[in-house]
Amino acid sequence: MPADKEPLYEQVANETALLIRSGTFRPGDRLPSVRKMSRQKKVSISTVLQAYIKLENRGLIEARPQSGYYVRRQEENESPEPNISSPQQDPCQVSIQELTMMVLRDITNPRLVQLGTALPNPDLLPSSRLARIVISLTRENPSLANTYDLPPGLEPLRVQIAQRLVENGCKVTPNDIVITSGCMEAIDLSLRATCRPGDIVAIESPIYFGMLQSLEALGLQVLEIPTHPRDGISLDALRFAIAHNSIRACMVISNFNNPLGSCIPDENKRQLVALLARHEIPLIENAISSEIHFSEQRPTVCKSYDLRGQVMLCSSFSKDLSPGYRVGWVVPGKAKAEVEWLKYTANIGVAPLPQMAIAQYLKTGGYDHHLRRIRREYAYNVGLMSQAVLHHFPSETRVTRPGGGFVLWVQLPEKVDSLELYKQALESGITLTPGYLFSASLQFRNFIRLNAACWTLDIERAIQTLGRLVDEMARS
Ligand SMILES: Cc1ncc(COP(=O)(O)O)c(C=O)c1O
Predict the structure, then answer these.
(1) Distance from the CA of 118 to the center of ligand 1, in angstroms?
(2) Measured from the CB, is residue 195 less than 6 Å from ligand 1?
(3) Nearest Cα to 112, choosing from 420, 431, 407, 422?
(4) Which of 136, 140, 213, 254 sits most deeply, having the most CB atoms within 10 A of its CB?
(5) 370-475 matches 127-367 in CATH topology
(6) Helix (H) or strand (E) segment spanning residue 320
(7) Where are the domains of the chain?
(8) Distance (Å, rounded) from C-alpha 366 to C-alpha 371?
(9) What's the pTM?
(10) Residue 369, number of CB atoms within 10 A of its CB
(11) What is the C-alpha end-to-end distance of the chain, expressed in Å?
């Protein structure tokens, strides 16, 4: 409905919701009193009251007796989280290719409300700054595109990455780093350097479907390990798995697992590295979302506890600077020579221009400032989406409370099949990622992953629609 055809109170509610979304009013802030708002907006007191009641029903604000209306705090969301996962206990082949390709087709369709991708919020990427750097680089150095940049990749970029890793407690030099085409290539090269077809890889469960796709493409078997929505992989379960299986490698998303949002606590990271080192099992660590932490403290990486070169740290700038530049890296430890050679045989090297642009961006400053901003924004958007889900979905719904990143993992009532929900949501112009994609054994039937990077009125309406669909499916 066009804005001027909406009832007045809806308009006031939507304008106020926009102020909350944009951060003008933050959680815990008092909204203007009903009387003041009615003067400001030149509407009646009952219109403002209706608008505030509407926002209260949406879960955005709350009335406090004798005090007025306040923006709800996200910490007040004390609803239960999903339990630790309980995957099947035997190794199996991955076969989610068909399902993944089907979902990927829809999650790149710009006409749909995109809750299905894990792409960052485009408004929170420094695109114009990077574009200006690219223009000046090509002007100053037009021959940049006339040559290859061979592995291990551009030195000034490796220097910048090494400096940040040292700050994060890793003993790493620029020579220890290989630049890759995104984090996915770093993972793929690490798997190819350590495993042969048929080998068993122990993984967190659930885990990002891209990593499952790499395992599937390489003909590897996976052993899914129970994973806690806050603390990540269960060390007891991993110990048991190692004692009963011949595990060739272990793979985790150490900080803010996609889709769980879990972050392995420091002590567990130390123990995980020590356990795997005792059994000479390499750890492939995906740390792609490490910089997007909501608390003050940047989480450590498992690599910082690695004394024997057995941790292969994989990451990229896809979540915080640009997914399209395809610049990532791996610190392969002992397997450096093998990874470098595999990188060369795969595609010679990474394009020099995006490497140079990112190196320059990191060097000329502004990255930390940028990170501080996006951390605040993502924390805020994740909080708003989780409140909206809890408000609009049936009461049995459980939502994770990630300490970083920007995805939510939602456990729906038992009866709801996420693939069926996916199909119905598509008909309403909305995408989501069905839980099936995050496990080799097609678990997580009644789970979905939502992208909470953006918060707009369209997205709020989409969450409302999803809530209605879930409710209907749960009752049918
Ligand atoms: C956990 C995780 N790893 C890797 C990737 C892909 O990274 P890249 O684009 O750098 O290859 C994603 C993208 O969504 C992701 O969520």
Answers:
(1) 8
(2) no
(3) 431
(4) 254
(5) no
(6) none
(7) 3-72, 127-367, 370-475
(8) 9
(9) 0.87
(10) 8
(11) 30
Quick: pLDDT tens for 180-227: 999 999 999 999 999 999 999 999 999 999 999 999 999 999 999 999
Residue nearest to atom 16 of ligand 1 (CA): 258
For residue 237, give the nearest of 439, 400, 86 by alpha carbon.
86
Q: Does the beta carbon of 316 sit less than 6 angstroms from any atom of ligand 1? A: yes
> Could you say which architecture CATH assigns to the domain 127-367?
3-Layer(aba) Sandwich (3.40)
Q: Does domain 3-72 have CATH number 3.40.50.2300?
A: no
User: CB–CB of 85/226 below 8 Å?
Assistant: yes
Of 117, 161, 183, 358, the residue with max ligand 1 atoms within 8 A of its CB, to mutate for a pocket test, comes to 183
| Cβ–Cβ under 8 Å, residues 257 and 227 | yes
Instruction: Tell me how far apart the alpha carbons of residues 262 and 227 are, in angstroms, rounded to a whole number.
Output: 8
Q: How many angstroms separate the alpha carbon of residue 183 from the centre of ligand 1?
A: 6
> For 127-183, how does the pLDDT look when each residue is reduced to its tens digit (9 = 90+)?
999 999 999 999 999 888 899 999 999 999 999 999 999 999 999 999 999 999 999
- Out of 3.10.450.50, 2.102.10.10, 3.30.110.40, 3.90.1150.10, the CATH code matching 370-475 is 3.90.1150.10
Angle of helix 8-21 relative to helix 45-57, nearest 10 degrees, comes to: 50
With a 6 Å cutoff on the Cβ, whether 259 touches ligand 1 is no
List Cβ neighbours of 439 (8 Å cut-off, separation of 6 or more): 87, 205, 206, 207, 212, 224
Q: Does any ligand 1 atom lie closer than 6 A to the CB of residue 452?
A: no
Please choose from 104, 209, 258 the residue to mutate so as to test ligand 1's pocket, defined by most ligand atoms within 8 A of CB. 258
Amino acid found at 238: L
